[in-house]
């Protein structure tokens, strides 16, 4: 049944073979802003990007340096063992997106995450080991982006990350907490155990200095030889070998899977919310379509007049999410395998009609997908926090919004070359069929799992860039971004305050209120409006943004994170 969605494997694009060749120095561009800026989830990574801007690098160069530094200092979240999405806005307003999503090995089958009894595997069983690892995409993405928009030499982008890995970096409280909470992946591999745990298996304390010479060597090799050293060299073979050795059944990763990986340019997905043009990442990410649906369905309501303290505003936000996620769950998947009706899903007429289903004084009895012409897709797993978002704006006006991930904390637990390998394949549906129909996001060889990552650019009514934003946090990502945009556009909040707004997450019939937030006080009012299931929970929230104000940049990081915005 899955075959009817199989549109054919895209032929892998050749990796940029000249990735290690220094880019020619470009003529200095006129400056649009007084400074360049980077906002990332870790100050050391933001500083790595800012250092590259100071050296004359473009926003693309700085974003790559930030991604590499995050591999070192935030090993639980993202890195070269995982994938990501890059959304770039040029100074000329041209928007471009690159898909560096991880890919299932060619031999993967739709039953990959089913047990011998035909039932879906428990989530952690699926995560740990080789079954969950997709071919990493971040370095191919970086090479492609650099070939098109890099100003500094490829090797220069690696210098800050190599320094951090070789000379050491201080483990943060958050890093320590992840090691302590997640030893099943953090210490799964002997290399991870030796790096981050003491002889008794106890996680290193916050404040400990960590050196990662294996990662420094890996980065030096890729800096010198280009991304091909990762995909077509001994490292690729080591990754395939380690992953295959820990994959229990068939469907093992091969060196050919890694050698054939290609980052893909995808069409940006754009829509207009109250005269602001919002652009982001399309399939295989559900990011942009979901953010646009949540927002545009709310256009008939005067969110500005309601304001951030109104229970009705948060009720409308919850209802809009229910409708948006119903469509997301059904339709969004890898567009090379499944026809994803992107334009239909973000059509303003369609979304306004969906918005008219929302009532300010009661809840919808059922939030169903709006176009039921494709197979039913599944629900989604628990939100995890193995991701990092960062944004860069350079003085010349180039903006990059990049989300990088290894999926859950410490990914699959398997390490190669000093970094953790992702568990991104658990973003596929574990269930291949539902009600006799193939699930759009089912596993298939060479396919990319659906993502929620939503790197976003926002242009004001005058067409000028006003905001670069994105988040980590699994399926909560589109909600975090939509909430920041409502705060910024409707409630006119400074970007730092918009990121500090609480989150209410309502992808189905349960409303989850961010624990400890002021939304807890609204629970009785929300219950009166008909929300039957309301729970409080700690949500994995981590948003980063840069707002533009004339020639000035205003960077912000989620106050719940250790993130920071740093000027050039
Ligand atoms: N793997 C997730 C996705 O691509 C992101 C995980 C996270 O943010 O923690 O949607």
UniProtKB/TrEMBL annotation:
UniProt cross-references to PROSITE patterns, sorted A to Z:
PROKAR_LIPOPROTEIN
GO molecular function terms here?
A: leukotriene C4 gamma-glutamyl transferase activity
Signal sequence annotation: 1-19
State if Acyltransferase is listed as a keyword. Answer: yes
PTM summary from the entry reads: Cleaved by autocatalysis into a large and a small subunit.
- Which InterPro entries does UniProt cross-reference here? GGT_bact (IPR051792), GGT_lsub (IPR043138), GGT_peptidase (IPR000101), GGT_ssub_C (IPR043137), Ntn_hydrolases_N (IPR029055)
The chemistry this enzyme catalyses reads: an N-terminal (5-L-glutamyl)-[peptide] + an alpha-amino acid = 5-L-glutamyl amino acid + an N-terminal L-alpha-aminoacyl-[peptide]; an S-substituted glutathione + H2O = an S-substituted L-cysteinylglycine + L-glutamate; glutathione + H2O = L-cysteinylglycine + L-glutamate
Record's keyword terms, sorted: Acyltransferase, Glutathione biosynthesis, Hydrolase, Signal, Transferase, Zymogen
Pathway connected to this protein: Sulfur metabolism; glutathione metabolism
What is this enzyme's EC? Answer: 2.3.2.2, 3.4.19.13
- What assembly does the database describe for this protein? This enzyme consists of two polypeptide chains, which are synthesized in precursor form from a single polypeptide.
Q: Which family does it belong to?
A: Belongs to the gamma-glutamyltransferase family.
Q: What is this protein called?
A: Glutathione hydrolase proenzyme
Q: Species name for this entry?
A: Novosphingobium album (ex Liu et al. 2023)
